[in-house]
């Protein structure tokens, strides 16, 4: 809520600044127009040395400028702008405490784990030099194990920037079995991107040959997608009129890139969002509440340090809400090591026993209880809380 208030205040300052600038420019333009008119009149008189004519024109100009009152108007606008500008810093000072250490509590950190988390964050962001430096200085050589995976990922991403799908295809081929277990369609998406590039070049024969070789194997499971792609061959040379022109959108490359990153992280047991970035984001959102609570409990410092649970809720966005306990929405049983939660390809989660009952303990597909998607037990992946 405080951030919304600050944003509204900032927007008001910006709006006033723009209005003041616009009005100031109008006043300057009006003064300039009056002066130009006076100069035009001076140039138009027959006797430019006549003091009577000059005095009359200048007197008229002075009267008009006095009527406009540019100095008073500009001073008024400047005053209004200064009032708004002076209020905003006060609001910032009120909303943000300069000393966030008040919310600090004595916590026993596992520095070995913290070093690994920070190093992994640097590698996940492609900052390999920083990660190497941290590992070297902190003496954490085992943390470098994840480096090669992310280095490979960024080599694939760099190739994708120039629409080179070779490295991505090699990686997908090597990890096909694991990707299939995750329910990923990366391979089909890759062939689709390559097929679209061939179609854009206007070679029907090459497009047809590529479709037969690389897309046909997916036809039985993705017939609708396959048919749309094949229809595009007919429209080679006039793709703007193709009924499936959305397949040509450059956003498919961006989506494929994000999917590559997600699958890379998944296969090496890492979250798409690094734990460090999640912790910082949650800390930023929760800090105002923690600072207020720390101020209220300033006289009870010992109790604040020993507190096991916060006495007030800390509102965080849905993307920052995590649960340590899972209850199956079908069986209502609490997840356990014997009956763990399982993630389905549609992203819904059921416990393992519910999935086995739905699949009749076989490899046959079953319909998700919450959406039309079908899945098999082999496609479901265990979640760890």
From TrEMBL:
Main location (coarse class): cytoplasm
GO molecular function, one term: ubiquitin protein ligase activity
One Gene Ontology term, aspect cellular component: cytoplasm
Domain (RING-type): residue spans on this chain: 328-371
SMART domains reported for this sequence: CRA, CTLH, RING
Name of one Pfam family that matches: CTLH
ZnF (RING-Gid-type) intervals: 328-371
Gene3D superfamilies xrefs: Zinc/RING finger domain, C3HC4 (zinc finger) (3.30.40.10)
Every CTLH domain range: 149-206
Domain of life: Eukaryota
Subcellular location: Cytoplasm
One annotated GO biological process: proteasome-mediated ubiquitin-dependent protein catabolic process
RING-Gid-type domain span: 328-371
Keyword terms: Cytoplasm, Metal-binding, Zinc, Zinc-finger
Name of the molecule in the record: RING-Gid-type domain-containing protein
Organism: Gossypium raimondii (Peruvian cotton)
Native organism taxonomy: Eukaryota, Viridiplantae, Streptophyta, Embryophyta, Tracheophyta
